[in-house]
Write a structure and sequence with these properties.
Length: 233
């Protein structure tokens, strides 16, 4: 068996403050408790740190743009942008629309309204960089916590959904023994998208891939619930 620990969710990594030192402390403290029922078991192969985190790039960027200055991750967000644009506010605003009346990096740090991409700019490159930074933080802490709690176990990441984010895969590959992904058939005849696997291979540098979920849906579940047609049946 491979156990899903829900480590990031329980430690409040996602959508809180990943770069707060307290986040690392919570993950390090929780991991031994979560692996305790399985550590040393001959049936235990390893762990998923979470399930289908998603790594929605635009949402990650927007969410932390609206956090207050006291948030450690908001500070990291502003520092990333300032470095990327070499401290040039005009270059930044060529790619992004800051909140009204925000005209400097210090004001951006204190702003709690959303920063938006400017149409026609190259802001998406900064959005992707930010995704990689947050994902790197997650996989670094998850690997550290899980390997300290159960050194003999393997680590398989957070079970990527079918819409994996390239920046997150690059970050993950440096920390896992194999990449776990959930993949469901694309067509009734069982056809699969070969580019999906080629993308994972290229992004991860050839890391092994473990398919940890696949299914066809039934017309009616054992609960009596009827599927509404959005799943392959």
């Amino acid at each position: 068996m491979i156990v899903n620990l829900e480590l990031g969710r329980l430690a409040k990594f996602h959508w809180f403050d990943p770069f707060d030192p307290a986040t690392e402390q919570r993950m390090m403290a929780l991991a031994p408790l979560l692996v305790a029922p399985y550590k040393g078991s001959p049936y235990r192969i390893g762990y998923f740190s979470d399930n289908e985190v998603g790594w929605w790039a635009g949402a990650l960027f927007s969410f932390y743009s609206g956090k207050p200055a006291a948030n450690f991750t908001k500070r990291r967000w502003v520092a990333m942008l300032s470095r990327r644009y070499a401290g040039d506010w005009r270059k930044f605003t060529a790619d992004f629309i800051p909140p009204p009346d925000v005209a400097s990096w210090s004001e951006l740090l204190n702003a709690t309204r959303l920063t938006q991409m400017r149409p026609g700019g190259r802001g998406i490159l900064a959005v992707r960089e930010w995704t990689g930074i947050v994902a790197e933080r997650y996989y670094t802490l998850a690997e550290k916590a899980i390997r300290a709690a159960d050194p003999d176990a393997l680590y398989f990441g957070d079970r990527l959904p079918i819409y994996y984010d390239p920046a997150a895969v690059r970050a993950e590959a440096r920390h896992v023994d194999a990449i776990a992904v959930n993949y469901n058939p694309d067509a009734g005849d069982g056809w699969i998208a070969h580019y999906f696997w080629a993308g994972l291979e290229k992004l991860s540098g050839g890391k092994p891939v473990l398919v940890t979920e696949w299914f066809f849906a039934a017309d009616e579940n054992r609960t009596g619930n009827r599927n509404n047609g959005h799943l392959m049946k």
